[in-house]
Amino acid sequence: MNADLKIALVGNPNSGKSTLFNVLTGLNQKIGNFPGVTVDKKTGFCKLPDRRIAQIIDLPGTYSFYPKSRDERIVMEALADKSNSAHPDLIIFVADASNLKRNLLLYTQVADLKIPIIIALNMMDLAERSGIEISVDELASKLGVQVIPISARNAQGIDELKQTITHASKIPLQVDSIEVEALAPQLVQQICLEMQIDIPYIALQLAHQHEQLSFLTVQQSDRIEEIEQEFSFQSQKSQATETITRYNFINDVLFDTIHFKADPLQETISNRIDKVLTHRVFGFVIFFAILFLIFQSIFAWSAYPMGLIEQLFVWLANTGHQLLPAGVLTNLLLDGVLAGLSGVLVFIPQIAILFAFISILEDTGYMSRVTFMMDKIMRKVGLSGKSVVPLIGGFACAVPSIMSARNIENWKDRMITIMVTPLITCSARLPVYALLISLVVPDKKVWWFINLQGVALMAMYVLSIVSAIIVAWAMKQIIRSRERGYFIMELPVYRMPRWNNIALTMYQKVKTFVFEAGKVIVAVSIILWVLASYGPSGRFEKIESQYQSPVYTQKYSAQQLGLLKESARLGNSYAGILGKAIEPAIKPLGFDWKIGIALITSFAAREVFVGTMATIYSVDSDESHLASVREKMHSARNPDTGLPVFTTATAFSLMIFYAFAMQCMSTIAVVYRETKHWKWPTIQFAYMTVLAYIASLITYQLLK
Amino acid sequence: MNLSQLKPGQKGIIKEFTDLEMSVKLMEMGCLPGECIVVERFAPLGDPIAVTVSGYQLSLRKHEASTIILL
User: Fold this and answer.
1) Which chain B residues have a beta carbon less than 8 Å from that of A284?
2) Do A148 and A193 lie in a common domain?
3) For residue A58, what are the domain limits?
4) Do A124 and A45 lie in a common domain?
5) Element holding A94 (H helix, E strand)
6) Are A240 and B24 a contacting pair at CB < 8 A?
7) B40-58 pLDDT, tens per residue?
8) Is residue A145 domain-shared with residue A87, that is, in the same domain?
9) How close A67 gets to chain B, by Cα (Å)?
10) B9 part of contact set with chain A, CB < 8 Å
11) pTM of the full structure
12) A394 assigned to some structural domain
């Protein structure tokens, strides 16, 4: 769509900016990333009353321009750099009417960039209820801009806002809030002159932020540094002075435009809720109950739709095999591409459910209370209070959980959370553990009620939590960050969730996952398919002729022969050859080449282990046949020694390997997407593999 | 006296800050010299704390609160 006008939404976090964005654009929006960072860039289109089309850009919510995190930098880059793709013709400043003073601080900074601006005074209803009276006309005339009272939540005032946009002036009319040059006269002049900037406040911000702004060349940045040295400019001090000067201006503006009547009712309700929700006992009880509900829902509610998706793909593959001519291309399409697609789409229910819960928790204001309660514990191991939800979500699946780590503002906390989340026992490990435990742990009860198999399974879960904590602590020591960790955070008043916002979040997260991570997953599926279905020339033909000899055809039925052939083919495929190649390396862990194949193929997803084992030991892989896989594995003997392959030592060593190893291409794909760099998934893959190897080695050698 | 020494329910008036970098962040969040600040509650484990300032609630860690000097 071609836009006639570009509009940016700017405002504080929790000011209702995103709600206004949703109201203005509806479903007509898309989420991308700002270049080089994983901050959602939401853009959408809005039809104006005069039939013009406006492109709306939702910039990240910030409290000021000063660089505390990447969010401020993005806002600065979009507004100060005319060549930026998000540089607007008009700014709608969304201000929370119930907290006008603090909101106006950012407003005065934005206004000084001299881009035409309109104020959307949001949450007027809330302000009135808490006894705040604002004379809108007075405010507008003092600031020299149009002020439109709205309630984005109830979609009130939106028509007026659109009208105002239509008639908005093309030249900036806002009055100057402070005299910017007075803060650093020579410095501002010099930068304006050399960089050919005509807006003093941009020059001042360049002095503050030049190291981080991507639109400056290295030479320009160095030159600004020199100018700073020349005039002995102190960034922090100047920021403090500027903030105080701005607040003086704001106090003048608000002196006779805002009136407080007594008795703010809303506050006390929120406070009363907080007395329960952050209570030292009930607070934790309620929190864990909510987590339990989330965890249960991801498991229980997603099982049925996931089953349907899987069935659909099985049906598609079967129908495809019947309808399409047999051949390499059909096999590639159905067993490679289609299998890959099903591997992507099967995650949709879990992602949708987790994000429904997360956006309800965010929307109501409960998430900031979780952070508030958990911060002290989590900080000790290098995480933040906000890491709790991704980590717990990791019990179901690391993929949506890593996506949800985006809510953690602090870069280092976020990276550590992403790095340790895959250690948590996800649901894909469950079939592997179930199979191996049933193989070697006796189904016996001790003390009447404790089932040994249950104990073994629980031990695996506990192990995953402990290892995540230890690794997080280690990473806290290793990862260096320039960002200073603040915890100063707004605790918004409790509100009802907005259901259409939640539906939108679910839809967008699913879409992002399918299109972005999906590409990598499909590609890896195809590679794995090739590895498992092809071998060096000649080998497959030999198998064919071997099983056609009467020795076999007389002894076995056609179906059994097919399975035997398949198993022999896998053994001679590239995957099989790889398995044999890595056998010397995995022998100390108690694994043979057949397990080696499973390790390679279950890189696609851990649960593939069961399927691969079934193929290698040639049985139908079907839920109801789990017992028969187990029997075959149980009776499998080492051809050299004649001893069983799956001893207690091997089975536990294998479980430990699956506990630590990064055997999930979906996770790798999503980590790449969320970190924007192959460095992070590579480090993660490496450390987890090393950890898995060492832990399995120790386990096997101890139990042997 | 600094903010971290107050108990829940107690209030004070902000006088100044001891940490320049932190003060910029605090001021943009509405903690200004002359503002009244009320400690609402402590987190269940004693840290961080929740305060009300300029009409809304803020949570901050105790060591951050200790940079706010009260009158």
Assistant:
1) 44
2) no
3) 5-166
4) yes
5) strand A90-96
6) yes
7) 999 988 889 999 988 888 9
8) yes
9) 10
10) no
11) 0.78
12) no
Give chain A positions within 8 Å (CB) of B28: 63-64, 66, 102, 105-106, 243
* pLDDT tens sequence across A253-301: 998 888 887 655 555 788 889 889 988 899 989 988 887 787 677 767 8
B4 lies within 8 A of chain A by CB: no
Which residue of chain B has the CA closest to A109?
B28
pLDDT, tens digit (0-9, with 9 covering 90-100), for A67-93:
676 778 888 888 988 888 889 999 999
Q: How many residues does chain A have?
A: 704
* The pLDDT of residue A155: 85
Domain boundary residue, one of A213, A241, A260: A260
Interchain pair A243, B52: CB under 8 A: no
More confident residue, A271 or A614: A271
Residue A591 lies in a domain: no
Q: Is A109 found in the same domain as A51? A: yes
Residue by residue, DSSP assigns B15-55 as EEES-HHHHHHHHHTT--TT-EEEEEEE-TTS-SEEEEETT
User: Domain total for chain A?
Assistant: 2
A405 DSSP 8-state letter? G
Residue A606 maps to a domain = no
Cβ contact (<8 Å) for A372 and B59? yes
B20, B48, B58 member nearest A490 (Cβ): B58
Of all residues in chain A, the percent with pLDDT exceeding 70 is 92
Q: Are residues A190 and A86 in the same domain?
A: no
Question: With contact defined as beta carbons under 8 Å apart, do A418 and A478 qualify?
Answer: no
| CATH code where residue A140 lies | 3.40.50.300
A18 and A103 belong to one structural domain: yes
Q: Give the minimum alpha-carbon distance from B28 to chain A in angstroms, rounded to a whole number.
A: 6
Smallest CA–CA distance, residue A299 to chain B, in Å, is 30
Is residue A668 within 8 A of residue A685, CB to CB? The reply is yes
Output the CA torsion A100→A101→A103→A108 (10° steps): 120
A223: in domain: yes
What pLDDT, on the 0 to 100 scale, is given for residue A2? 72
Question: Does one domain contain both A158 and A23?
Answer: yes
State the alpha helices, DSSP H only, in A534-678.
539-548, 550-555, 558-572, 574-586, 593-601, 608-616, 626-635, 648-660, 665-675
* ipTM topping 0.90: yes
Interchain contact B63–A (C-beta under 8 A): no
CATH of region B3-70, choose from 3.20.20.450, 2.30.30.110, 3.40.50.150, 2.30.30.90: 2.30.30.90
Q: Enumerate the residues of chain A whose CB falls inside 8 A of the CB of residue B26.
A: 488
Whether the per-residue pLDDT at A217 is higher than 90: the answer is no
Omega cis (within 30) before B48? yes
Q: Which residues contact A337 (CB under 8 A, 6 or more apart)?
A: A522, A525, A526
Find chain A residues with C-beta within 8 A of B41's C-beta: 274-275, 278
Instruction: Count Cα neighbours of A486 within 13 Å in the Cβ-side half-sphere.
Output: 19
User: What is the percent of chain A where pLDDT is above 90?
Assistant: 23
Judging contacts by C-beta atoms under 8 Å, the chain B residues touching residue A486 are 22, 25, 64
Q: Do B56 and A490 touch (CB under 8 A)?
A: yes
pLDDT at A614: 67
Among the candidates A143, A166, A189, a domain finishes at: A166
Instruction: Enumerate residues 242 to 301 of chain A having a beta carbon within 8 A of any beta carbon in chain B.
Output: 243-244, 247, 264, 267, 270-271, 274-275, 278-281, 283-284
Same domain, yes or no: A158 and A38: yes
